[in-house]
Amino acid sequence: MARQQARKRFGQNFLHEKGVIRHIIDSIGPGPEDHFVEIGPGRGAITRELAARARKLDVVEIDRDLAAELHNAEWAVEAGVTIHTADALEFDFASLSDTESSLRLAGNLPYNISTPLLFHFLEAQKLFSDIHVMLQKEVVQRMTADPGSKNYGRLTVALAARCRVESLFNIGSGAFSPAPKVGSAFVRLIPLASPLVSENELPAFDAVLREAFGKRRKQLANALQTLLSADAIEAAGIDPMARAETLPVEDFAALGRQLQKQSPDQMRGYALE
Ligand code: SAM
To answer: Domain range for residue 224?
Structure first.
């Protein structure tokens, strides 16, 4: 059967360079006790090695044709890989296991939906002991930026409140077919056992981040004026004259808590994106 063309709408860029695949697997370090879930197995570049080394592997693939190819692959049948033909953005990870830190997640993610995917994973962060993903290099630069740098922003802080992020290595476009127009990086996320922001405070925290980074160079008193007064900012222990782009994650968490305390009802209806 002739192979279908890569589907752009599903962000399909298949890994083909053996050295890169080996480097990825070595960084993940799958072991015989591990239960993995892989997002977007595609033609199985990473899947095959994970299946061979892990105790259990569930994969989530949206493309029905690729899922069917995997169903027919002898190595996948032999290893007992469970294939879920589904949209990972809607996938309920708790249906695989409800034990804390019992799952390891890996994937070469479709770049067009990588940020919403990351936040969907983190909604179930208690279940994951770690997350290894391939992403667009620019996104990884934003995820790992230091306060005061140009890449430091809402994504950096929203992630830092929930997990530790480690950029492992960059990968050139030539390792993929078709070659993406952007550079790639492989990254490890370790969910924090105690996130800096509780689930119930997340909407307020996110509201603060949105306003603060919408006006990142302005003083907080000005940038946050629709949410918090200068006095309220000070009551959270933060200098109202400081600028958002210089503030560490702990200070944003304190501002979110202050807002939550001040207007719990207002925040209840606040939609997270
Ligand atoms: N893992 C393969 C590799 O490294 O060669 C494929 C990676 S490719 C960048 C992304 C994969 O994710 C494709 O197989 C694509 O069909 C799948 N995909 C795209 N959107 C998805 C979604 N919403 N849910 C699950 N899989 C998705």
So the answer is: 199-263
Output the domain CATH number for residue 27. Answer: 3.40.50.150
Q: Are residues 101 and 219 in the same domain?
A: no
Q: Is residue 3 part of a domain?
A: no
Both 237 and 151 in a single domain? no
Query: Which of 21, 44, 27, 47 has the alpha carbon at shortest distance from 36?
Result: 47
Cα distance between residue 205 and residue 226, in whole Å = 14
The finding on whether 180 has its CB within 6 A of some atom of ligand 1 is no
For the chain, what is the total number of helices (H) and then of strands (E)? 12, 9
Establish if 147 belongs to a structural domain: yes
Structure confidence by residue, pLDDT tens digits, 70-79 = 999 999 999 9
Alpha helices, H only, 54-144: 64-72, 74-79, 114-123, 137-143
Angstrom distance (rounded) from CA 2 to CA 24: 28
Find the CATH number of the domain harbouring 259: 1.10.8.100
| Total domain count, the chain | 2
Task: For residue 10, report the distance from its CA to the centre of ligand 1, in Å.
Answer: 6
Substitution site in 7, 12, 139 for ligand 1 pocket (most atoms within 8 Å of beta carbon): 12
**CB of 38 closer than 6 A to ligand 1?**
no
Q: Is 108 in the pocket of ligand 1 (CB under 6 A)?
A: yes
Tokens of 40: 């977007």
59 close to ligand 1 (CB < 6 Angstrom): no
pTM as predicted:
0.94
Q: Mind listing the pLDDT tens digit for each residue in 246-261? A: 999 999 999 999 999 9
Count of Cβ atoms closer than 10 Å to residue 111 Cβ: 19
Atom 20 of ligand 1, nearest CA residue? 10
- Is the shortest distance between the CB of 65 and ligand 1 below 6 Å? no
